[in-house]
Model the fold of this input.
Amino acid sequence: MQKTTRKPVNSFFKKIFVEAGTQVANYAIIFLISILIGALVIFLSGKDPIAAYKALWIGAFGNGLKFADTLDRSTVMILAGVAGALAFRTNVTNLGLEGQLYMGAFAAAWVGFSIHGLPSYVHIPLCLIAGCLGGAIWTLPVIYLKLRWNITELVTTLMMNYIGIRFTEYLIAFPFKDPTATLAGSPVLDASARLPKLMQGSTLNIGFIIAIAVAIFVYWFLFKSKTGYEMRMVGLNKDFAAASGIPVNRSYILAMTMSGAIVGLGGAIMITGFFGRFLGSFSSGYGWDGMMIALLAQNHPLGVLPASLFYGALANGALAMQSATGVPQTAVVMVKGSIMFFVTVTVFVPYIRRRLEKWVA
Amino acid sequence: MAEAISVNNITKTFPGVLANDRVSMEIEKGEIRAIVGENGAGKTTLMKILYGLYRPDSGDIRVKGEIVKLSSARDAISKGIGMVHQHFMLVPSFTLAQNIVLGVEPHKRVFIDEKALIEKVQRISDQYNLDVNVNKLTLNASVGEQQRAEILKALYRGADILILDEPTAVLTDIETKELFSMLRGLAKQGKTILFISHKLREVLEISDNTTVMRQGKVVGTVRTCETDDCELAEMMVGRETIGGRIRETPENREKDVVLNIENLSVLNSRDLLAVKNINLELHSGEILGIAGVDGNGQEEFVEALMGLRPALTGKISIDGQEVQEFSTRGIRESGVAYIPSDRYRSGVAVDAAIWENLITSEYYNKPYTNGMSLMMREINNLSDSLVKKFQVSTPGINVKAGNLSGGNIQRVIAGRELGLDKAKIVIASQPTRGIDISGTEAIRQMLVDYADRGAGVLLLSADLDEIIALSDRIIVFYNGKIYNAGFWYEGIRQVVGQLMTGGEGGCNAEDNAQTC
Done:
């Protein structure tokens, strides 16, 4: 009896071990190759790759302050990544994260600079809720077009990006222009709308904690809640979900608006935590980064956390690298691009799995 | 006459299916040969082998007397074999002429020679008397015209042997007539034509000889002028039931109507009328078999019943309550269990765990949720018990459904749909297609048990043996209408076969279109 039950348990753990090992090895190899490609480019441009990477490392993690700044940089990336992961896992191709980020950011800024005299504990939540609403509302036209005429969101979300970015630009250039500012931007937010800092001398603020909480919530929502189960089933096989009686349209609406709300919250945190006002083109493509991060995290909300930290570190480190060694930041873009390429191709997974299985056996 | 193409002892297996079993036939030059058979008889597999898309496991193919190896469509084309697919392979934004020459355009140096292109296509079109306006954009061309362009495409590439896969399925009656006169013209000019169909009337009208296939084998080849639709239908569906009857029809038929359908019409995905004003009653305790060749409206009918496709007109009542406006969930909650025909498309999510596939109709009820979270302990208990009861062979309920065999996937679906003994109506579409014998027996037994407990069972199957083995009463879908074959009796098979292939009148030996 004992013997017959033991064997499957062993092979079960062996399988888990092999799978986890494969994943780690897979990512390690992808990172290594990508870093080598970056090094090669730096070397070919006549600079010292080791010095450049050292500067990058120090810039990202060199001391507590720099580490805190890196965490701050990754905050919006976490939210954009979670928004992407939620959408992609539920079969919603939301490519409009960037536009939703801008709309959320502006909505939060507007609440921050036009409502006065509120205590922080009211004003901040109001700003963040406005951010969520801004992002969510920006998905409504997309949802309408999809449900009414079955127009794919792949195109409409992409187009809504440009409308959102230009629309907020218009808002700060005309109706909400701050006459005293040199840069195109909204008026400054009231102090009561600013997020409390977590560390002296760093921009890290409670937005980071909110982002982690959102990632954990979305994990719970997707994998442990009733509605999340519905949405994942729709994501895995829409026809199956429909035939089983799962409300497919409701799932679509919810996934799209939640995704927009989460990335909108990211925009709100950037404005209330970092900038203190809405600035034109304030986002250096965080919405797009979010999609890449979701891909890197294989659409797992908790996998988004390390992936965002990595992206945040690359972003902050690149600045330091450029000023210290003269290697342009674009070298980092090269590394990021290579990683995305290899993750997408994932040629290594089956190969390594086969090798590992042989090795374990 | 000279032999154009022949196959000798072709065998082709797919995992679990013997698609072609020692198939042999010879076709002469200038002949129009029809190949008929039910779904899954192996016609399309054979045609794909002839066109180089599949490779046979054994057997050989001769073209004009010479043994050939066809390992791609390119090989087949070079041997003069052309294929007109059921779904056209044309670029909508190109002109018909551009589509016809696509890939083999005449050119001047690196540029395509548009003038020569149009001239060449026009010449061939005139030569074979195919009325094609070559300058028309494909997206503006009618279905018939697109089909002629497909035929021209094959002829342009030098085809002497044309394979047409159910060419009339997409055509109107007038277009079909035009096609037939064109095919006769082509045959007169020495082209050989292989024509796949399951519409016997058309076969009798157009072909010189007819080969009937059933369950991967050639049943026989007959001169079309010497046969009639009765004989062909009998060859297609066979004479005896294999495996025998497993259902004991209850002595006292119950009269309670559990499902009542009145004047139901349904559109298909191309907005054509697929179900035409049908009326049907399903009684408690009854297994009602729905036979029919695929594509005669039965899928659309089931989808309308399940709320997956809107009813154009008509009423659907379950236990007296009208449900045609209900959502799929509402219909399921009214007591309907549904085993979909395509288990990979709508029966399971292959990347979801077994437990996730088992709870789709229960997860939102207590005790499986508290309103917010899934209650995993209850769900695991339910899943474990269903896996056990339905003998799903798996190491655990966390295994992805896609890792199971087809038969085990079907057991998962059966477990979900039938495991909780709730259903008043069971709609089982192809419930045993492609699964092993023990799985088939288990699922058939479950359906019988359900009927014995007073549920109404609608059984749809492409396998006529299954319908005859299980049903108390049989209806046939033909061209969107239903024809009643009546209560089961020893010789019902012939009647069902005739209704499947010809609809209302059944077969009529006097009806033959050709004389020798």
The longest helix of chain A spans residues 2-44.
